[in-house]
Known about the structure:
Layout: H1 9-31, E1 34-38, E2 41-45, E3 50-52, E4 54-58, E5 67-74, E6 81-87, E7 89-92, E8 102-104, E9 115-117, E10 126-133, E11 144-150, H2 160-195, H3 202-207, H4 216-229
Parallel strand pairs: 2-11
Antiparallel strand pairs: 1-4, 3-9, 5-6, 5-10, 6-7, 8-9, 10-11
Helix pairs in contact: 2-4
Amino acid sequence: MRRPGAAGPGGRLLLLLLPRGALLLLGVCNALSLEIKVNPKVRAFVGEQALLKCSFRSSSPITESLLVDWTYRPLAGGQMETIFHYRSVPHPATAGRFKDRIIWVGNVANGDASIAIQSPELSDNGTFICSVKNPPDVYHNIPQTVLLVTERGLAFQLSSAALLSILVFLPSALVVVLLLVRMGRKFRLLKEKGKYGYKKSSIEVSDEPEHPDRAGCGGKLKEWCMNCVDTDEEDPY
């Protein structure tokens, strides 16, 4: 008589097969899987080629059965449409908005399924999906790329750091230029005074150092700067 709770021969066999079955199922799931990576957002300018990158990794060898499909949905919404198909050779769309504007730039042997859009337009903004199947690997994630096409404005674009640098250094540069102009003006006035034989008063003579030649260029520069500061009053001839 069998004891209650004791497993019979069939039950013991089932318990032995369950772990092996779970491992086998896990191995099959891993074999039938692909990993696809794309850029979440791509920016492009009107009329300039837009590159949509797509890379994949498969646990199975690459064969001629590998399939690549690119689908598109407008930014405003709507149904998905296939715009590119690859199987051994590329098959661009022969109708629709992307007719004759999509080129194959990928290499499936290197796990690359990228495409490029020629002469993108503002109406091309939308969501692009790269799908790859390499039997028996047919299950994969579904990453999406959002394409944003804009008009190119200036020939160059200033970054925030460059703009901040200009705003900081431009006033300083203007001050330096104005200072140099005032110094040049003062220097010209001093030369004109010497040309017309201007004589200094006894007070001005007493204020001057006994050995002006020893001061050199530094002393002259200091004198010019002091003259620039006192620009409101001009000495009479």
